[in-house]
Amino acid sequence: MSTIQAQIDEIEKEMARTQKNKATNYHLGTLKAKLAKLRSELLNGPGGKSAGSKDAGRGFDVTKSGDTRVGLVGFPSVGKSTLLTTLTGTRSEAAAYEFTTLTCIPGTMKYKGARIQVLDLPGIIEGAAEGKGRGRQVISTARTCNLILVVLDAAKPLTHKKIIENELFSFGIRINQSPPNVKVTRNEGGGIDYQEMVPQTKGMNAEVCRVVLKEFKVSCAQIILREDITVDQFIDVIEGNRAYIPVLYVFNKIDSLTIEELDILDQMPNYVPISSQHEWNLEELMEEIWDRCNMLRIYTKPKGQIPDYDEPVILHSEGNPTVEEFCNRIHRTLIDQFSHAWVWGRSAKHQPQRCGKEHRLMDEDVVQIVKKAG
Ligand SMILES: Nc1nc2c(ncn2[C@@H]2O[C@H](COP(=O)(O)OP(=O)(O)OP(=O)(O)O)[C@@H](O)[C@H]2O)c(=O)[nH]1
Ligand SMILES: [K+]
Ligand SMILES: [Mg+2]
Q1: Which CATH architecture has domain 295-371?
Q2: Which of 5-19, 200-214, 288-302, 344-358 has the weakest average pLDDT?
Q3: Domain 55-177+244-292: what homologous superfamily?
């Protein structure tokens, strides 16, 4: 039998030969599903657990701390360690030779009252996900981050960018995408029930759904598409275990560029030009990191005192947290004594508003908890 890589090459060739049209859509769907399965076998061995599962490759053993975790990923010698030292004050050795850093070095950056854990990581190169160098360990660790900073040398950013994106992709990381809005319910019987809540314009239909599910040996399931998605996104949902993580591109060493060169880079989305060495533009970098970490600052106000603006309680902002979540963050049993809360700020209809525990908070609200009498 040919090697997995040879089978992958074969399928990729066949996909390239296959013209894209309605008639070949099902065939392409099958090929894509086969490809996804082979890729995860390549990463995890035959019968493979999907990329990123616990045994698929272990990350560095660094305890999570702080309010969120940001990882530095990039080619060797792009300046990751220099950046860690500049951002967090934790010294990570930096030098002009490649692979100076051989393990994961954590540091903490304080910004707007939040404690952001930053991880310096060894450099990665092409083939990292398949096990070149410490690549798998690096990318497994990147999977545990809330935000990945892809650090690039401003002098050769675009070729490196593509390679790193591919490595992250083949490890099941989907960057700057949200999880597709698809509901999958696996059933004991009843075949495939396929429903589109919105018109599908990117290749999905009942037949493609069926061939993909067949490849993954799913014969009975209800599938509801609530968003216009591609076949690849559908395969992601069925294979599972994808990590959807925001990425910010950091172009380091801009001190070595001309203004004209810098202007060309300026067109890219999600990117920040910096010089770690000269500490140029770090304020913007921190602001961009903050924007992607989805955190809220809630200030506490003890009765009769002014709010404590230096030490906000940091909450994750997805779906806007409730007053109850705020209480739980302060103390496990606080909610048992909760009577009501006074809330000032953007979430309040008047200043202050008397709120129950279901009230949803917004960034920079001020909250005073009133306990039950007795
Ligand atoms: N000109 C310039 N050089 C920089 C800058 N940042 C880092 N360097 C230099 O680039 C070299 C590599 O820096 P490191 O911080 O070791 O890079 P790294 O990405 O951690 O490297 P590995 O750990 O080997 O992957 C060192 O000689 C740094 O002094 C910068 O902003 N401008
Ligand atoms: K280096
Ligand atoms: Mg380093």
Answers
A1: Roll (3.10)
A2: 5-19
A3: P-loop containing nucleotide triphosphate hydrolases (3.40.50.300)
Per-residue pLDDT tens over the stretch 67-122:
999 999 999 999 999 999 999 999 999 999 999 999 999 999 999 999 999 999 99
As a whole-number percent, the residues of the chain with pLDDT over 70 amount to 96
Regarding the beta carbon of 80 and ligand 1, being less than 6 Å apart is answered yes
Instruction: Report pTM.
Output: 0.89
- Ligand at minimal distance from the CA of 155 is 1
Domain ranges of the chain: 4-48+180-241, 55-177+244-292, 295-371
Map the chain to HEC letters.
Answer: CCCHHHHHHHHHHHHHHCCCCHHHHHHHHHHHHHHHHHHHHHHHCCCCCCCCCHHHCCCCCCCCCCCEEEEEEECCCCCHHHHHHHHHCCCCCCCCCCCCCCCCEEEEEEECCEEEEEEECCCCCCCHHHCCCCHHHHHHHHCCCCEEEEEEECCCHHHHHHHHHHHHHHCCEEECCCCCCEEEEECCCCCEEEEECCCCCCECCHHHHHHHHHHCCCCCEEEEECCCCEHHHHHHHHHCCCEEECEEEEEECHHHCCHHHHHHHCCCCCEEECECCCCECHHHHHHHHHHHCCEEEEEECCCCCCCCCCCCEEEECCCCCEHHHHHHHHCCCHHHHEEEEEEECCCCCCCCEEECCCCECCCCCEEEEEECCC
Task: For ligand 1, pick from 153, 272, 277 the residue to mutate: most ligand atoms within 8 Å of CB.
Answer: 277
